[in-house]
Specification:
The complex is a heterodimer.
Chain A (H helix, E strand, L loop, with lengths): L3 E4 L2 E4 L5 E7 L6 E7 L5 E8 L5 E2 L8 E7 L2 E6 L8 E8 L10 E5 L1
Chain B lengths: L3 E4 L2 E5 L4 E7 L6 E7 L5 E8 L4 E4 L2 E6 L4 E6 L8 E8 L5 E3 L3 E6 L1
Parallel strand pairs in B: 2-11
Antiparallel strand pairs in B: 1-3, 3-8, 4-5, 4-9, 6-7, 7-8, 9-10, 9-11
The chains are: A mainly beta, B mainly beta.
C-alpha cells in the first residue's frame, strides 16, 4: 500500500497556542487531501477536503479560521490548529488520495492543557 | 447525507471462531466501500476495498461483501486469532471521494 507520514504523533500544547500537523505522501502524489478528527471510541469525522493549490472545503460546523489547511504541493499538506483550547484535544488523521483506495496517516494525538 | 452504521459495537469471541461484522449505509450511490482496521491510538490500515460494481473481495482470512441495493456490507473473518483484536471500521465513499465512516466494531479475540 501507499506510504503516508504524519507527524507529530503526539503533541501537548498550552491553551492559546497554535499547533501544526504535517501529512506527507511519500510514494505517490495526492491530488486531494482529507483531514479527519476522531473522538475517543468514536468514528472518524471529516473536517475538510483540500485539492492541491486550492482552498480547502470545510464540513458544516468546522471553523475554517481555527483549523487552517494548506495543501501547497502534491505530497504535503498541513493542518494548523490555531489558538487551541482544551476542547480541541482529539486525534487528527490525514488521508491523502490519488485514486479509489484510501490511505491514512498514523494520526496525531493533540492534548491542549 | 450518507450515514454509516456498524453492528455490533463490540464483540468478544474465543480464538478460532468465524465471525461476521456488519455495516449498513443509507445512500446506495456509493463509489466504493472500504474496510479498515484500527489499533488503539493508531491510524487506519486498509483491509479490503470493494468497488461499487463488485460484490465481494477476499484477502487471506478476510472476505468482504457488498450489496448496494440493500445498503449493506459484511466483513467475514475466518478462524479468528488474538492478533485480530482491534477496531474495525467501514467507510462508504461518495462520488466526490468523500468518505463517511461507521462508528466501528471493537473486536476482542480471547486466547
Amino acid at each position: 500500500g501507499a506510504v503516508v507520514s504524519q507527524h507529530p504523533s503526539r503533541v501537548i500544547c498550552k491553551s492559546g497556542t497554535s499547533v501544526k500537523i504535517e501529512c506527507r505522501s511519500l510514494d505517490f502524489q495526492a491530488t486531494t487531501m482529507f483531514w479527519y478528527r476522531q473522538f475517543p471510541k468514536k468514528s472518524l469525522m471529516l473536517m475538510a477536503t483540500s485539492n492541491e493549490g486550492s482552498k480547502a472545503t470545510y464540513e458544516q460546523g468546522v471553523e475554517k479560521d481555527k483549523f487552517l489547511i494548506n495543501h501547497a504541493s502534491l505530497t504535503l499538506s498541513t493542518l494548523t490548529v490555531t489558538s487551541a483550547h482544551p476542547e480541541d484535544s482529539s486525534f487528527y488523521i490525514c488521508s491523502p488520495r490519488a485514486g479509489p483506495e484510501a490511505f491514512f496517516g498514523q494520526g496525531t494525538r493533540l492534548t491542549v492543557v | 447525507k450518507q450515514e454509516v452504521t456498524q453492528i455490533p459495537a463490540a464483540l468478544s469471541v474465543p480464538e478460532g471462531e468465524n465471525l461476521v461484522l456488519n455495516c449498513s449505509f443509507t445512500d446506495s450511490a456509493i463509489y466504493n466501500l472500504q474496510w479498515f482496521r484500527q489499533d488503539p491510538g493508531k491510524g487506519l490500515t486498509s483491509l479490503l476495498l470493494i468497488q461499487s460494481s463488485q460484490r465481494e473481495q477476499t484477502s487471506g482470512r478476510l472476505n468482504a461483501s457488498l450489496d448496494k441495493s440493500s445498503g449493506r456490507s459484511t466483513l467475514y473473518i475466518a478462524a479468528s486469532q488474538p492478533g485480530d483484536s482491534a477496531t474495525y471500521l467501514c467507510a462508504a465513499t461518495g462520488r466526490n471521494n468523500d468518505m463517511r465512516f461507521g462508528a466501528g466494531t471493537r473486536l476482542t479475540v480471547k486466547p
